[in-house]
Write a structure and sequence with these properties.
mainly alpha
Length: 82
């Protein structure tokens, strides 16, 4: 019985860690709309968690995205990463 429980726990742990590695992330609706304002033809589907974080930080770091440096190039570069 102990072996069955141990095997079940090991199988469950390996499945959950594999799921975590293949999970895609999504931008919030507000951030996706804001990012698409800068990169209208950008593909914002199937983003990695790192891409979502980078775009979120970029959008949050600018006080007024309408003035100063245009983040369109930075967002496009982030989208190119896989």
């Amino acid at each position: 019985m102990k072996n069955l429980i141990l095997a079940t726990l090991i199988a469950g742990a390996s499945v959950s860690s594999a799921f975590a590695m293949t999970t895609t992330a999504q931008l919030s609706e507000v951030n996706r709309i804001e990012a698409q304002r800068f990169v209208p033809n950008g593909d914002f589907t199937n983003l990695t968690p790192a891409q979502v974080t980078a775009i979120d930080l970029l959008l949050l770091s600018s006080e007024d995205l309408g003035a100063g440096e245009n983040p369109a190039g930075k967002i496009a570069k982030i989208l190119e990463r896989s």
